[in-house]
Write the structure tokens for this entry.
Amino acid sequence: MIIVLIIVGAILFAVFTIGLKSGWLRNVLIVLALAILIWPIASISATDNNHYGMKEKTTTTEKSIASAADMKGANINMLLYQPLGNGKEKVYIYKTDKTQKKPTTTQADEKTTNKVVKSGSTKTAKLVTKITHYVFKNNFYKAMYAGLDADNQYKERTNTFKVGNNWLVLSTKQAKQLQKQATAAQKQMKTAIETQVKEAMTKDPSMSKSQQKTLTQQLEQKAQQQAQQQMMQKLQQMQK
């Protein structure tokens, strides 16, 4: 409708300016035509710049998330991020379930805000996303600005990661460093266990294969617990 008013205003202005003789009636009609022409143009500008005739509508969605990376030798849940620019802005990396091969990332735009909320009572980690759009207040404004593609304009997005206190929030660089350390620790642990089993067999040559297997499992379990404790200490230090 607003486009029709602009066209009508332009036509009337041209007709009154060219087709009428000078006089007070011509002047009044020209002013009227200009008003019909200018008002919708100003209204469109107000809608574009100040969202005239519109209101905010926020949609909230929730979804469960899983650890973004699997740390060998440690049962640790991690939420990763990639710093942008000077490091103040971050793109977060996560998975919606453990079987997901390629992780998902948050949006990298100036209208997106990411937050992490830790709570000991959070049993299931989740991502709460709130997206706000500008929509027309009623059908009158919707009909008035039809054809201008102004409805449902994107305003902002807020991603809130709600995770338990047992989750760790690390940069991708930190995660890679820890992965290398974990791989090296696994190799050292394997060598140490093999050495201990050989020493036990030297002391007791009569050890059966079943006994060797049991001893190996016991040593592996103990080593895994120690490795996980050491890994957790390193991770906690990184977040300080």
Remarks:
- DSSP finds five helices and eight strands in the chain.
- The helical segments are 2-19, 24-50, 139-144, 172-203, 209-238.
- The radius of gyration is 33 Å.
